[in-house]
What does this fold into?
Amino acid sequence: MRTSRLEAFSDGVLAIIITIMVLELKVPEGPELADLIHWTGTGLLTYLLSFVYVGIYWNNHHHTFQLVRQVDGAVMWANLALLFCLSLFPFTTAWVDESRFARTPVIIYGVNLLCAALAYFTLQRIIIRHEGPQGLLRQAVGMDLKGMVSPLFYVAGIVCALTIDRNGHLGAAIAMACYVTVAIMWIVPDRRIDRMARQFGMPD
It folds into this structure.
């Protein structure tokens, strides 16, 4: 099966995820900037972080499938597993927002990010196995150090939230800093895949 239907379906799901997240933002109850900060400030921050994450996955998903010619059932199910993890972003993002970065919601948000990262890593591995050792994606990804380091940051953030200042917000703040760090690491699209796609004249 060609990749076009899988990509179109994935694009639609990601667009819906972003739409749901923005609809969760609270409208200020007054006309002043202070009302915006009071009613929507935290929500804007959590929405921005999750929006960046969805954008990162959309970008890297697009670049990955530039190098894929055919997909099979295993790839389709792995892609659905990734979309399932991403579809939980609106829920976990809203919980972090409404709890004002409370410990448990921050931990669950980190687990959500970790599951999405593992699902994306699994999707890539299944594609590489399907394409074979000479597949373009395998050549482009190589060791994929960023892909292996990112889950460690998520785990570190979750552990910090679990163990540091359990009755306060320090552990949760460190956890959120870990999550932001990973987003910054990935905000630039994977240039290895982009270079490989240009080298072999793959369509955008």
In short: The chain has a mean pLDDT of 87.
